[in-house]
Amino acid sequence: MLTVALPKGELLKNSIHILQDVGLDFSAFLDSGNRQLQITDSSGQAKGLLVRAQDVPVYVEYGQAQLGIVGYDVLREKKPQVAHLVDLQFGHCRMSVAVKKSSPYRSALELPPHGRVASKYVNCAREYFYSLDFPVEIVPLSGSVELGPITGMSEAIVDLVSTGRTLRENGLVEIATLYESTARLIAHPLSYRLNTGHLLELVEKLRLSVLSTIAV
Amino acid sequence: MLTVALPKGELLKNSIHILQDVGLDFSAFLDSGNRQLQITDSSGQAKGLLVRAQDVPVYVEYGQAQLGIVGYDVLREKKPQVAHLVDLQFGHCRMSVAVKKSSPYRSALELPPHGRVASKYVNCAREYFYSLDFPVEIVPLSGSVELGPITGMSEAIVDLVSTGRTLRENGLVEIATLYESTARLIAHPLSYRLNTGHLLELVEKLRLSVLSTIAV
Question: Ranges for the ATP phosphoribosyltransferase catalytic domain (chains A, B) (predicted)?
Fold first, then answer.
């Protein structure tokens, strides 16, 4: 039986809807009283695994799930050994550099050299400033990154921005975009090549379903 | 003015109580409606910073907070450059190896060599098995680590155990303890040496307050 790893949080609802479109029903994960992390689709075709977004590629990389849905940001940050299959066209957001609105910085290169940049995405942040050949110190935080500039610990942050509300509420503005992100369908490379559990058929259906949504 | 970094979650309530005992009131962080991450104590002596537990040592290491309260588990995992000052004697828990109750493994050395161990504490797990000279593959997860053995992705987990309820609910049992953990008072080393903002006085008061609690 196929196993699909689904991400908790922002992308869950749309992930479940797109799988429903191709005949896999994991809507039980959306019940507010649900505490189960593993359920079997009502048609008995596949198992769903509900895990943290960052853990989706881990389950897929280790072959515990053959398919997974996860944000491109996680793939860019962790670089897991998985096959990237379909851009699912939902969960649009962007990885941005932001600073205090009251600061004088209006582009990444205007930041003070050897200044500090706080981020949960330390690899993305490091690669970006490296590509600019601009030396900064990356401060690894695990949450509330906006506190970096507010407390004065860092001049800037690198974080995922969707509506921009959190930035506005904290008096921050974006000054550069590293890349755009959306939800992606990923697969365990060997399972994909061997077409385990008729995986290719399902992937094709999902691809067509996404295309039809865009056409409308 | 002194800044104290406080950890969100399990340790927050006791952290606030112990600071109240020495005259610093950050109880506003406990109001259910509170959204502020930075408040000044009502006596105007110090500022409180409410951050994720893993971020407490980051704020202290970078000198943005002179003092912080955090679990020993975080200090063992991240090894930040901070001064360890006082064992605050609350938040007792332990870092343990656990396996499925139905598995044949009853000690760490009985695990299959080159087997998999899932953990959020990858450094602690790696060091432990290294100290046993026992080769395992560490699978880094960020949440719901108990899914590792349940899905069959890993033979064991290394995780923080307090009451043991999560393990029991998931049919897992502890087979080894890496170390015991409690909440710790930490300081920015230079601020501590220079006695910034009469920090030493506050640390001494906290030490006495902990001792008097134990005596009772």
Answer: 52-207
pLDDT at A213: 82
Q: Which of residues 37-66 of A touch B (CB under 8 A)?
A: 37-38, 49, 51-52, 54-55, 58-59, 62, 64
Cβ-defined contact of B143 to A58 (cutoff 8 Å): no
Is the Cβ pair A142, B62 closer than 8 Å? no
- Do both A175 and A145 map to the same domain? yes
- State the smallest CA–CA distance between residue A210 and chain B in angstroms: 29
Closest CA to A147 of A180, A89, A98, A79: A98
To the nearest whole angstrom, how far is the Cα of A153 from the nearest Cα of chain B? 6
- What pLDDT is attached to residue B213? 82
Task: Of A13-17, A131-135, B31-35, B64-68, give the lowest mean pLDDT range.
Answer: B31-35
Q: Which of A58, A147, A150 sits opposite B139 (nearest CB)?
A: A58
Per CB-CB distance under 8 Å, the chain B contacts of A151 are 3, 38, 49, 59, 64
Average pLDDT over residues B101-114: 97
Residue B216 pLDDT greater than 70, yes or no:
no
Specify whether B86 is located in the same domain as B15: yes
What value does the mean pLDDT take over residues B127-134? Answer: 97
**pLDDT at residue A32, rounded to an integer:** 86
Structural domain containing residue B115: 93-180
Query: How distant is the Cα of B49 from the closest Cα of chain A, in angstroms?
Result: 9
**Same structural domain, A10 and A85:** yes
In this structure, the answer to whether residues A187 and A158 fall within a common structural domain is no
pLDDT at B14: 97
A53, A13: one domain = yes
- pLDDT beyond 80 at B214: no
DSSP secondary structure, chain B, as one string: -EEEEEESSTTHHHHHHHHHHTT---GGGGSTT---SEEE-TTSSEEEEEE-GGGHHHHHHTTS-SEEEEEHHHHHHH--S-EEEEE---S-EEEEEEEETTSS--SGGGSPTT-EEEES-HHHHHHHHHHTT---EEEE-SS-TTHHHHHTS-SEEEEEESSSHHHHHTTEEEEEEEEEE-EEEEE-HHHHHHTGGGHHHHHHHHHHHHHHHHH-
Mean pLDDT (chain A, rounded) = 95
Give the number of domains in chain B: 2
Question: Residue ranges of chain A with pLDDT lower than 50?
Answer: none
Average per-residue pLDDT for chain B: 95
Percent of chain B clearing pLDDT 70 (strictly above):
100
